[in-house]
């Protein structure tokens, strides 16, 4: 019996019926065990740990109704499908609504409908178990999925995620670059009823304006020069699941109107297609910009803003939750050791002090980047100050000041590489523009795509 196996317990006092149902369910790829009554079923629960139970009603010693009652008293009990005599609809509905059964199946069993119902029951149980596991992580250690933090700000994020995930509501994720907006998006998906469906992420700032519409809605063959084959867009690819539109503030106004219509009609039209296609997608949007202010300035559609922000989750910058840095650094170290096959034990106390004092303009993404560099250099033992980059430790040699623009200054040192100088200038410009990529690209004299690629290269995208 493997942990990944889907397990079903069949409970029926009639040996022939029990055997027939068991063989049918086994053919569908489930692991099956059987019991002849409720007492035997309860005895088998701890060892077999079924994902669903299929039970008859009329049985000696303990019937199906009493079994249901006992299961309802157990936390995390598997869902129960009740087998009922043909035409006894009133009893069946009472079993579901008053006794807590997952659903009922009339005898004789129709295999196709029964299989669909069984798949749903098992999926429901697996999802509930995952939610309970993640909630236990949260209460015990300040961890929810890949999110880490015991600070009040992160506890509020955890609460919103847990409340919003089971719904179908649109969510707007806000916060500076590197605060973990995509991580939160994936967690919302994993905790939602759509967890078995696809999760598709699209970055609106990483594509030229001419390609965004095709990427989002798809196109037919010959729709434009170079469209040699038909292609599904992100909405179609995310059907039955979740779509994340990252950097939504960089989406062109003309495309915003088309997106709004899709959200209202739940239909998309590929470029060059004669008809629309219905889509079932939950939309999440993320941005490091102030969309409400942009809407007031006419740079973002106000109606789309309110459609996207049914619920807003604001992720705090790392400098505002410094108490979380030790726990966060420990979780990242464990993950990086597994990734690189290293044996780094811990951080030197002086290193931890440095990490807590630093302002982290690149937030959690920058922290991970710094720790990954340190893990690779260290290999085993404790990470010391010598494994950190100079901009964190304050080690300087022959400082040379360079002024960028009328206000801010960057400090360069002899021995810095050109890549380090470039990163310093980009970081300074991003801070100066309050992480407005459009304005930063203008100051640097490069286009937004080039800036995005540079930030991604430095782990700050």
Distance between termini? 44 Å
Class by helix and strand content? alpha/beta
Radius of gyration equals 28 Å
The percent of residues in helical segments reads: 40-55%
Topology:
Blueprint: E1 7-11, H1 15-27, E2 31-35, H2 38-48, E3 52-56, H3 64-72, E4 80-84, H4 89-97, E5 103-106, H5 111-141, E6 143-144, E7 147-148, H6 152-164, E8 171-174, H7 181-190, E9 199-203, H8 209-217, E10 218-219, E11 231-232, H9 234-237, E12 242-246, H10 253-265, E13 267-268, E14 277-278, E15 282-287, H11 291-296, H12 302-308, E16 311-314, H13 325-340, E17 343-347, H14 349-357, H15 363-378, E18 380-383, H16 390-393, E19 399-403, E20 409-413, H17 418-432, H18 437-444, H19 448-457
Parallel strand pairs: 1-2, 1-3, 3-4, 4-5, 8-15, 8-16, 9-12, 12-15, 17-18
Antiparallel strand pairs: 6-7, 10-11, 13-14, 19-20
Can you give a write-up of this model?
The chain has 461 residues and is an alpha/beta fold. The chain has four domains: 7-127, Response regulator (Rossmann fold, 3-Layer(aba) Sandwich); 142-316, Rossmann fold (3-Layer(aba) Sandwich), CATH 3.40.50.300; 317-394, Orthogonal Bundle (Helicase, Ruva Protein, domain 3); 396-461, Orthogonal Bundle (Arc Repressor Mutant, subunit A). It is built from 19 helices and 20 strands. It has helices at residues 15-27, 38-48, 64-72, 89-97, 111-141, 152-164, 181-190, 209-217, 234-237, 253-265, 291-296, 302-308, 325-340, 349-357, 363-378, 390-393, 418-432, 437-444, 448-457; strands at residues 7-11, 31-35, 52-56, 80-84, 103-106, 143-144, 147-148, 171-174, 199-203, 218-219, 231-232, 242-246, 267-268, 277-278, 282-287, 311-314, 343-347, 380-383, 399-403, 409-413. The strands form seven sheets. It has a five-stranded parallel beta sheet with strand order 2-1-3-4-5, sandwiched between helices. Helix 2 (38-48) packs across helix 3, helix 17 packs across helix 18 (437-444) and helix 18 (437-444) packs across helix 19 (448-457). The longest helix has 31 residues, at 111-141. It starts with 6 loop residues before the first strand and ends with a helix. Residues 395-406 have low confidence and may be disordered.
